[in-house]
Amino acid sequence: MPARRLTEALEASKKTDLNGLDIKLTYSCTFSENSVYSLQFNSVGSLALGLADGTIQFRDSDHKQISTTKAIDGDIPVMSVKWIKKDGILATLASGSIIECSINTGDPQIRRLFKEPSGTNCLDISPNNQATTGGSDGCLRIYDLSSETMVRDCSWHTSRIFSVKWKDYSVLVSGGWDNVIKLWDTRTRGTSVVNISGPHICGDAIDTFDNFLLTGSWRKHSALELWDCRFSSHPAVIFNLDSPEKGEYLYCASLLAQANSALAAGSGTCGLHLVNLITGKITAFVSFSRAVQTMHVNNEEAAMAGCGSNIRVCSLLR
User: What domains are there in the chain, each with its CATH number?
Assistant: First the structure.
């Protein structure tokens, strides 16, 4: 009954009829033996990539390489990149550094903003220009980007945090190695509003839409789950990604709610799955040579990357 109610509510909430969504590989390259830990499109389709050797690479809307920074903190990996303007990003490193990188003058210009006491694994930016990070110490930290000050920190996880998302202006969602998803209202000083037990998050594998929460766990089976935050005690709807031998082991997941679909990728699947959330069926798959560690979706494309600096970009076909 909870699963049926959840999928019925999702179908009723869609704004556009995109049930014919498909994906098609349009670009692929390998540029070095250097893993990609994070990537994101900006508003014009350019890509920023955070690499394992501590550099950040920028590619234009045709996916051609524009520039690459020098190693920021030696060979410490860049764990997360987020565009904050058309020609600039925020990035977090496993060293705990949070930096701003601008490419408006051609060559990347790096400015250090904050230094956290442990590795900083993930980052998200709110609609009102606040940045939140998740650290290896289990702590969430909120920064005001206008004043460049930390406004709040809280240790609500008992292990490393690997994904944090602003659900709206005030509600944050986070998850990591402690197998608990936490939703909390930043307007309060109390404990988290909702706890969801089960998901083991090892990458950017949390996404939200209205009351729905998608999680991708790094485990062999039953890794992709859809939850209704209003009924957190109810079991999730589980989607089978049909990878019986290697398992699923997801690092990333994205909710395409207006299409009643989700994208998921990881180290077991070694590729990108498109899943219909109403029927539960896999509607498309794009293979990848090795583990997929990061993925990002804009209105027209999905990009994925991972081990060995493989990049693949797919068109979203409606």
Answer: 1-30+202-318 (2.130.10.10)
Maximum pairwise Cα distance, the chain: 57
CA 290 to CA 309: how far, in whole Å? 10
Calpha distance 56→108 (Å, rounded): 9
Q: Please state which of the ranges 92-101, 130-139, 180-189 shows the lowest mean pLDDT.
A: 180-189
**Of the candidates 252, 259, 290, 299, the residue with the CA atom closest to the CA atom of residue 273:** 252
CA 198 to chain centre: 18
Q: Are 130 and 137 in contact (CB under 8 A)?
A: no
Name residue 203's amino acid: G
166: nearest Cα among 139, 184, 154, 143? 184
Q: Which of 306, 245, 304 is nearest to 273 (CA)?
A: 304
Here the tokens at position 181 are 């998803």
Residue 87 — pLDDT band, cuts 50, 70, 90? confident
Q: Among residues 83, 48, 203, which one has the least CA distance to residue 134?
A: 203
Kindly state the tokens that stand for 97.
Answer: 């550094």
DSSP letter assigned to residue 245: T
Supply 80's token pair: 């997360």
The pTM score is 0.92
For residue 30 the two structure tokens come to 């390998």
For residue 279, the tally of other CB atoms under 10 A from its CB is 12
Strands, E assignment, 229-277: 237-239, 250-256, 261-266, 271-276
User: Where does residue 96 fall: left (phi above 0), alpha (psi -120 to 50 degrees), or beta otherwise?
Assistant: left
Instruction: Please write the tens of the pLDDT for every residue from 19-66.
Output: 568 999 999 998 877 899 999 999 999 999 999 999 999 999 999 999
Q: What's the Cα-to-Cα distance from 55 to each of 23, 52, 92, rounded to whole Å?
A: 30, 7, 11
Cβ partners under 8 Å of residue 200, min gap 6: 177, 179, 217, 218, 219
